[in-house]
Amino acid sequence: xxxxxxxxxxxxxxxxxxxxxxxxxxxxxxxxxxxxxxxxxxxxxxxxxxxxxxxxxxxxxxxxxxxxxxxxxxxxxxxxxxxxxxxxxxxxxxxxxxxxxxxxxxxxxxxxxxxxxxxxxxxxxxxxxxxxxxxxxxxxxxxxxxxxxxxxxxxxxxxxxxxxxxxxxxxxxxxxxxxxxxxxxxxxxxxxxxxxxxxxxxxxxx
Length: 206
Known about the structure:
Elements: H1 12-30, H2 40-47, H3 51-57, H4 61-78, H5 87-97, H6 99-106, H7 108-112, H8 118-142, H9 150-168, H10 172-177, H11 190-205
């Protein structure tokens, strides 16, 4: 990704474009590095802004990645599910194809929500609730659920993503050990694990 010049955004359109550039740069870094190793200075440089300017849009690295997560969730909620497939399978296909969303979900509670004040946390959770409502409606359109169970099903999906991502993406040294017998029995493929979890969750939620 090419960076642009350090010029102050003044119009609402310019500010929206600058915000989008910052989010795109953050996504690019996150696709290649662990969250802990990403520096806001590098994101700012790639987005074409100063670090001070970046802080005008996002007060912390966590706030930046929370918005990136919400953008990914919104795209997921507005996407189409393959109605020719069972719900669990259609949903698994979409989630597996959205690696960025799954990676962010995996660190949502343990990392991204840890450096927020009460106001930021409340705003994030309310926005999250809105996106969950849209996603729940999408799931209902695909395969109707009992109204009192759809919310719990969505939370269980989130938990399944977190768990499956954690066990299928071990630390680098462990990952190397799992490449050969006898330790390869511990290797877990994210897509396979998530499909199994979602199939079981849907069956249990009916």
